[in-house]
Amino acid sequence: MNFSYVWYDTAHWLLSPARAASDFTKHFFDNPDNPLTNTPYGRTVSAACELFERTTRRYGKPAFNLPTTVIGNEEVAVTERIVWEHPFCRVISFERDHAGAKAQPKLLIVAPMSGHYATLLRGTVETFLPTHQVMITDWTDARMVPLAEGAFDLDDYIDYLKDIFRALGPDLSVMAVCQPAVPVIAAIARLEAENDPLIPRSMILMGGPIDTRRSPTAVNRLAEERGIEWFRQHCITKVPPSHPGFWRDVYPGFLQLSGFMAMNIDRHLTAHYEMFNHLVDGDGDSAEKHREFYDEYLAVMDLTAEFYLQTVEKVFVNHELPKGEMMHRDEPVDLMAIRRCAIMAVEGERDDISGVGQTLAALELTPNLSSDKKLYHLQAGVGHYGVFNGSRFRAQIAPRIVEFIENHNREPARKAASRA
Q1: Which of 93, 168, 175, 187 would give a disulfide with 204, using CB separation of 3.0 to 4.6 Å?
Q2: What is the mean pLDDT of each run of 10 residues along the chain (420 residues)?
Q3: How many of the other CB atoms lie within 10 Å of CB of 372?
Q4: Looking at the DSSP assignment, which residues form a beta bridge with residue 139?
Q5: What is the C-alpha end-to-end distance of the chain, expressed in Å?
Q6: pTM for the model
Q7: Strand order in the sheet with 133-139
C-alpha cells in the first residue's frame, strides 16, 4: 500500500512549529518600531522567512474575487450563486446587477479537473463577464468528499455534464478548457444520439486532448511509455484520517504539483530567487505579483483514483475516442452522431501540454456536422495557458469565441424567420 499521503501530512504537521517561528521572526523584522526593519539585514531575514513559510505551507482553495464587471459603460456588481450541485461538483453562476444581463448568451465554462481549482480560470471568467451569463464547474477536492458518497469516474463525469447541460439549457454554449474537452464532446455525442432537445448550441474546445497521437508532448509520451499499471502503483494513495475523505483512493494534489513543477523546475527556482531579491530591494509590486501567481499555482486538489486512471487509460494510452472505441455506460460514444452542436477548436502554437492538432481532431472526427458549424483558431505565439488567459487571449481569441457563440445563437432565429 502507498503511504505517501500519510508521510506528506506528517511532514506538514512536523514543520508547523518551524513555520510559526518563521512567521514570528518575519513580523519582528517587519515591525516599524524595530530599528533593523529598514536595513539590508532586516529585509534579508524577513525575505528568507517569508520564502520558507510560503514553500512549506499547504495552500487553500482560492476565491474568484470578481466583485464587479463593466457592461456597456456601467460598472455593475457581481455575485456568485450556486445553480447546480452534486457531491463532486457544483456550478457557480456569476450574477450581474444589470437590467440587460439576462438577455445575454449563456456560457458554461467547464474547468479542468486535473489538479488545480476552477479559480485557475479566473481571467477567463472575467473576460466574458461583460458579454455573457457566465457559469463555471467548480469541482470538489476528492479528499473533502466522504467515502460514503461513493466513487466518481469518467462515466460519472460525463453523467454530471449531461445533467448540467439539461439543467442550464436551452440555448447554452459550453467552453471546455484542456482536460474536459474529451468528456464534454462525449457528453454531447451521447445527447445527440439520444436526440435530446436540450443539447448545447455550441461547444468551444480549448487546448484539449481529443487525439493525443498527434504532435505528442512529453506528457502524452510519458503516459504511453509507463502504461496504466505504473500510474496505479506509483500515483494512487489513500486519504489520511485527518480529512473528510478518509480512506478514499486518490491521486493526491501534492504529487500532481511536483509533476507540474518538475517540467519547468529552473523557471520556478528562478522566480523564487527573484522574489527574494524583490523583497530585499523593497520592490513590493513585483513581490505581490509573485504571491498572486503562486497562491493560485500551488493550490491543488486531489482526484479520485478511478477518474484519474480511467482518463489516463482511455484518453492517453488507448486513444479510445479518436479510434471510435470509447464507451459510456455500455453505450458507444459516436462522434458521427454530432449534427446540431457547433464546434470551435482553439489551439496554441507553443502548447507543450496538448500539441497542435490534438484539438483540431474534433472537427475532423465529426463528418456529419456541416462545415458552417465548425471553426478552427490557431493562436500564434502562445503556450498552453495562453490559450485561455493573458493578453493575446483577451485581444485575439476571446473576440472570435464571442462571435462564434453569437452566430450560432442567431441561427435558430434565422431559421424560424425563414419558415415564417
Answers
A1: 175
A2: 79 88 91 89 91 86 95 94 98 96 96 92 97 97 96 98 95 97 98 96 98 92 89 92 94 83 77 84 84 85 96 96 97 97 97 95 98 97 94 97 94 51
A3: 10
A4: 89
A5: 67
A6: 0.91
A7: 68-71, 74-86, 89-96, 133-139, 106-110, 172-177, 202-206, 342-348, 374-379
